Amino acid sequence: MNPRIPAKALQLRSLVRRSGELEISLAEVDVPEPAADEVLVRIEATPINPSDLGLLFGAADMSSAKVTGSAERPVVTAPVPEKFMKGMAGRLDESMPVGNEGAGVVVKAGSAPAAQALLGKTVAIIGGAMYAQYRCIKAEQCLRLPDDATPAEGASCFVNPLTALGMVETMKREGHSALVHTAAASNLGQMLNRICIQDKVALVNIVRKKDQADLLKAQGAKFVCSTDSPNFMAELTDALAASGATIAFDAIGGGKLAGQILTGMEAALNRNAKEYSRYGSTTHKQVYLYGMLDTAPTEFARSFGMAWGMGGWLLFPFLQKIGPAAAQKLRERVAAELKTTFASHYSDEVSLAGALQASAMAAYGKRATGVKYLINPNKGVAA
Amino acid sequence: MNPRIPAKALQLRSLVRRSGELEISLAEVDVPEPAADEVLVRIEATPINPSDLGLLFGAADMSSAKVTGSAERPVVTAPVPEKFMKGMAGRLDESMPVGNEGAGVVVKAGSAPAAQALLGKTVAIIGGAMYAQYRCIKAEQCLRLPDDATPAEGASCFVNPLTALGMVETMKREGHSALVHTAAASNLGQMLNRICIQDKVALVNIVRKKDQADLLKAQGAKFVCSTDSPNFMAELTDALAASGATIAFDAIGGGKLAGQILTGMEAALNRNAKEYSRYGSTTHKQVYLYGMLDTAPTEFARSFGMAWGMGGWLLFPFLQKIGPAAAQKLRERVAAELKTTFASHYSDEVSLAGALQASAMAAYGKRATGVKYLINPNKGVAA
User: Fold this and answer.
1) Backbone phi, then psi, for B16, in 5-degree steps?
2) CB within 8 Å of A330: residues ≥ 6 apart
3) A290 vs B contacts (CB less than 8 Å)
4) What is the pLDDT of residues B174-183, one digit of tens each?
5) A297: closest chain B residue by CA
6) CB within 8 A of A332, min separation 6: which ones?
7) pLDDT tens-digit map of B306-326
8) Does ipTM exceed 0.85?
């Protein structure tokens, strides 16, 4: 056995007790032995995405969180409000590993040639339980990174890149020619902006603040609207009319923004209407809510005719729908453009224990643009 | 020329002036001469459907309406609140005829054989401008009624019957096996209940009051939930679990009901879930908003996973989507079951002038279950 691989290693766990308490801790678990078609990856970079926070924090009130234990083995506890316990029914009293995606070095491989071929290579992987020092996974699920790529560069290979590509793909498949994106200054939003510039697809970026608008404009974005502008609706309608966007991907979810986008699309379409229809434009307008940055209720005034839809959008059902061949094409594009189109930027790099410090949780828990944490579960551990 | 056909006749008109005033009046218009492929129908029955009120009243504040003019030629005026004038832009200063559907007797026909064949027959027609004493229309657009059917029996042949059939058809085409309907004690709701009983499709009826629930149960409805019950959500979830309904048609539009239906569907699906998924059930849940009985904003809490959709649903785009052959099949079923499945009931029958009396407008303007007006534009006129 490779002397550098320990028998036991750390894995982050999230547990919601029936009593209404969330507990996040670092468990010491056996490092698994890869089967013939598997590899053991020493995880060196795994991002904290908004899509990880649901499982990590559950429905707990993190403003009341307490951190106990030692600096190396912190234990986070927080109360789950009674009204949210119903939604936790499926995970009660089950200690769950967390972390959608990550990257690292293959330190051990099963006997199969495909597994052996990856030994010593840097790979990106997806499949949960990435907030851990080691992750055993099937060789075929690994995306081998270019030789000059670091684990940090490949850590966010799947969720953001495939989501951004999936939006453009959904736009095309559903018969639209331009799209809208909210929370557009996020890592994902900047990535989508780069894709759209490259693919010559018109993109209407919606951000909250002027400095976010400036950032996107500096990156070549043509249409950027900021909700903090007093003329937001007029500016949005102009951008929608100029771009022809009739589909939107909204990361916010709560509040009035999704409805405002539909209202703006309808107003843009009616600028060129020749005849009055009390049912509004016959062009279908769609908003997909793919995130929940605002957990408040969604509210809209239905001032956009009858040809409209709103709905959930999620990466994995989308990939299933388009099938393995189409999904593989998207993955290959990500690997080929890893350091350009699909580059991610992190504001902080922490260890597993560091991710459970109160200040860190407060920072990434805000889901704020510009704050993005990368965990290196082997930070400070000699490789 | 047939001496019984006058040279001029009455037609109801709705006008929204740029100054912000609605005016409804009876215009005296030339009775048209049918072209070769057209017929002239003496309208004897035309319903006031919720779908007519949008064009009739515009966005006016009808609580401030005034009726002037004579009893035979009333003129209704009402102010349009400034904030709604934007939505009226397409119809400003244009005097518009009203009335989606109606029935009457063909009193004159063009030279084409298809037109001549209808002379003297009772027909149902759709196409707007039915709130008039005479309507000229293409012969091919007429649905000839059975010989023993009166115009009143055929007046609501299209909108409600095809909408109800369209809901069941949409349910099947989108892969669902049971459906939910709100405002279920309406004429349309009772019709849908009869269709579902006949076609053995499980239907969850949502009503506002116990007496409406009793009415539907007396008509054989199996699942009826009333929003005035203190256990509404639990009762709805039980009905959704028992029926397996994953698509809903909502006539209300505003408020929380559409979201509650999705929440209930998700809870019903999760009763049998084997594994926890933080993204919720993978079964797609859909609510179509086809009406606006409540014009308040729509609000929902997104407590139903990611596999959901909400959207507008409208009869005519639906008929276009399924194509003429499938639409014709639906129409033939309506004609065949006119006096049974598709029978409509009216609380009041009025003349054109009677429809513009303050008490009448207050009654049908409420869109209340059990109140349904039928206009006979030739009421009291010798045939």
Assistant:
1) -110, 115
2) A161, A162, A165, A166, A169, A319
3) 306
4) 999 999 999 9
5) B301
6) none
7) 999 999 999 989 999 999 899
8) no
